[in-house]
Amino acid sequence: MNLKKKNFLLVRNDKIGDFMLTWPAISYLKKNMEDAHITCLVSKDVERLAVRCKNIDEIITDQSLRNLKKIIKEKKFDAAISFFSTFRIGYLLKSCKIPLRIAPATKLAQFFYNHKLKQKRSNSKKPEHEYNTDLVVELLEKYHVTDYEPMDEPPYLVLDKKEAEEYKKNFCNIYKINLNKKILFIHPGTGGSSKNLSIDDYVSICKGLRSFDDHNFIIHYSPYEKKIATELYNKLKNVTNVKLIRPTNSVDALLKNINLCDVFISGSTGPLHIAGALNKQTVGFYPSKKSSTHLRWETINNSKNRLHFTDLGGSFRNIKIDEKKTILEIQKFIGVL
Length: 337
Description:
The chain is α/β, with parallel strands linked by helices and 337 residues long. 36% of the residues lie in helices and 18% in strands. It has helices spanning 16-20, 23-32, 47-51, 65-75, 87-95, 128-142, 161-175, 199-210, 226-236, 251-259, 270-277, 323-333; strands at 7-11, 37-42, 58-61, 79-82, 100-104, 115-117, 183-187, 196-197, 216-219, 242-244, 263-267, 281-286, 306-310, 318-319. α2 (23-32) runs parallel beside α6 and α4 (65-75) packs across α5.
C-alpha cells in the first residue's frame, strides 16, 4: 500500500503532563510513516509546547465545536487517534466523517469510534506513554505496517543549544548560581492534578541534601503557586543556598528554565513531565492510588534518569515518605554519594 501523504489527526486536548506523555507515540508514528502529515488537536495551554515537537506538522487549538467541525472537515483526515476519549471529541470526529477513528474502549464515548482498543488504563499495568503508543500501533496495523522501526530514545524535546546556553548564562548571573554545584529545581505545587509532599517535607529533604553538598536549590512554581513557594523559601533561606525564581506564564521561558537544571524534584505534575521530555534527572513523588501510580505516570526520560517515591499513606492532603531513606536515595541518584 502507498503510505505517502496520509493525513492523520491526533487528539490530546487537556493538561501539559498528559500531552507530554503522547510525544513518544507521536515520534513512533512519524518514524514508521515518515511521509504522513500529522496534525494535533491540543488545548490552548499546550499550544506553545506542541510547536516545539518536531514530529507534529500542524496544530489545531481547541475551540468551539462549530469551528472545529469546519476546520477538521476541510483537512480531510484519513484517520484520527484520540489518546483520551471524551464524549465531545468522539462526537466531533464521527460527525466529521473521518474514515478510521481509533480510541481506548472506555465509557460511552467509545461508540463514536469504529476501532476501539481495550486498555483499562486505570489498572495501571503499564506507563501512560505506552498505552498511547499501543494506539499508534493499532493505526500502523490498519495500514499494514509490520516491519516496525525501533522507538526513538530520549530526549523527545530538545532546545536550541546556543540559545539554551545563553539563557543559562544570563539566568545564573541574575540569580548568582554557583556553576560548580548541581542545580536542583524544587517544584512544591501540584497544578491541581495530584497530591504532593508537604512544605515541611520539602524543607527536610533540602536540608538533608545540603548536608552532603552545597547544591543550588531553585524553587520553581507557577504564578498561581506563589504562596506555597514563598513559604518554602522562607523556611530554607537561612539554611541552604536557595533562590526563589520569578514565575512565568510563558511556555518558552518555562522550557528554558527547566532545561537549565540538573535535577527536577516534584510531585506528578506538568513541569515534571517537561523535565522528563528534556531527559533531565527527575525525582517524582506519587500517590498510592491505583490509577495514579508511578508506573502509570512514569516520565519519558531514560530509566537511569528517573527516581520515584510512593505515598506511604496516613495523610489525606499530602504524600508521606520516609525522610531519611528518601534523602539518601536522592543523594545516591544525583551522584553525590
